[in-house]
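pinging the channel bc i need a second pair of eyes. not urgent but kinda urgent?? the chain im working w is below, pasted from the shared doc
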Amino acid sequence: MAVGLAAIGVAILTLAYGAPPHIALALAASFGTYGLVKKTAPLPPLEGLTLETVLLGLPAAAYLVAADRAGTGVFVHGATATSLFLIGGGLVTIVPLLLFASAVRLVPLSTMGLLQFISPTIQLVLALALYHEPFGRSRVAGFAAVWLALVVFAFDEVRSAPARALEREPAGTRV
C-alpha cells in the first residue's frame, strides 16, 4: 500500500511538472544504493570511507591535473580562498559520512529510509516559511500522497517490530 501511495504521489507531481522528477528519483536511487552498500560492505566505517576516497579521489585528481595542463583549471590558481573552502568542505564532510557509515550498520535499512526524509522535510518547511515558495494544489496532493505512504510504512514497521525481534532471538532464549 505504501509503495502504491508513493507511486501515486510521484505520478501527480510528474503530471503537474510535465516530466518525471529525474533528479529526485536519481538521488533517491543513488543514496538508497549507497546505504545498502555501506550496510553490507565487509569493511568497518573508517576503512570503507578510506576506500571510497581513494577510488573517487584518483579520477578527481586526474581530472584536476588534466584541466590544469589544458589551461582551464582554476583549482589552487587565482582563487585561493575558494580552493581552501573546497578542501575544507571535503574535510568537514568526513564526520557525517563516518557517522552515517557507523549508524547504517546498527539500524535497519527501513529505518534509515524513513530518516532520509528529515532533510527534505526541513528544506520544504524552509522553502515555504522563509522563502515563500509557491506550493499549489498539485504539489500538496503529490506530497500528501508521499507522506501518507511514509505514515503507512512507518505504522507497519512499528506494528511488526515485535515479531521481527522474536525472529532474530536465538533459539532456546525465550521464556
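so DSSP finds eight helices and no strands in the chain. and The chain has a mean pLDDT of 86. — does that match what u expected or am i reading it wrong
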